Amino acid sequence: MSTPESGDHAHNPIPKYLGIFGFLVAVTAFELMPLFGILQIPPPVLLGLSAVKFTVVVLFFMHLYGDKPINNRLFFIPLVLAGLSVSVLMALFGTWSLQWPVRTHKDPVTGARTEVRDSDDVVERYRGRWKGDCNAWVKSAATGNEYCSSPWIAFTNQPAYDALKVVVAPPDPAFDGWDAKSADDKKTVLMKKGEEVFESKCAACHQATGLGLPGAFPPLANDPIVNGGDVSQHITTVLKGLNGKAINGVSYGAAMQAWGPVLNDQEIASVITYERNSWSNNGGLVEPAQVTALR
Fold first, then answer.
1. What is the pLDDT of residues 220-237, one digit of tens each?
2. What element of type H or E holds 146?
3. How far apart are alpha carbons 278 and 221 in whole angstroms?
4. DSSP 3-state assignment of 162?
């Protein structure tokens, strides 16, 4: 009775075939990842993977059927067709161009090599990767890759118009029944509202101390107009602004804006009353009706 040779038991092709199958599946997965946006692989690498995969397939079948000329020709045809298919797919999905985010430049004189790269924002807008509409395609000065320099976005000028709109505050309920209020009650309301308006609109220039900024904004403390002077001039200045006029013989570089279009009559009367009764000033009260009359 013959005994099988030891080599017969050792030769089991199934593990080898499973290994080849697993390798082909892994390579195919890497080839498909860029199509689903999972992984960005440069086109030369994709071509290399495809060439390796199909070479393995051809060699495997040549191994099975023997290295005969007829087999070589038969398996060369699908290899070429597979390569053409990969090229068509890459063209359709926009991955044909050679896009390397990092390039090495060599100085022709010194021979020194320096690396330059495109920013992540530019890389995301490479042709083939950018999925949105584009107004202009340009080449990167660093790497020569073509990318979208002007992505299309919906444009509207409405926000600009909204920003220019002047929003005037509605009348303050604290002023209800104004004519029936006593002088002390009126002063309390005016001073409280005036302090709010001054802190939000005026303090940045005239300062919370009322001393202003030398050479830029005039002081309000002990100013002759503010401290009991012509109230009409004070109201007109706040309503219409002031520019280029020397105050007490001193010129100031900054212009005062006109607050008339921004503040209502109650707010202007309040802030003027606050200015005329703060920092040792004693200029009396200003009624909203006085502001209305000078608009």
1. 998 999 998 899 999 999
2. strand 146-148
3. 7
4. helix
What 8-state DSSP symbol labels residue 48? H
Q: How many CB atoms are located within 10 Å of the residue 119 CB?
A: 11
Which of 138, 144, 146, 148 lies closest to 105 in space, CA to CA?
144
More confident residue, 252 or 72: 252
106 Cβ partners below 8 Å, 6+ apart? 112, 113
Phi-psi region of 105 (alpha: psi -120 to 50; beta: other; left: phi over 0): beta
Query: 167 with 243: CB under 8 angstroms?
Result: no
Per the model's pLDDT, the better-predicted residue between 214 and 51 turns out to be: 214
Q: What are the structural domains of the chain?
A: 14-92 (no CATH), 116-155 (no CATH), 164-294 (1.10.760.10)
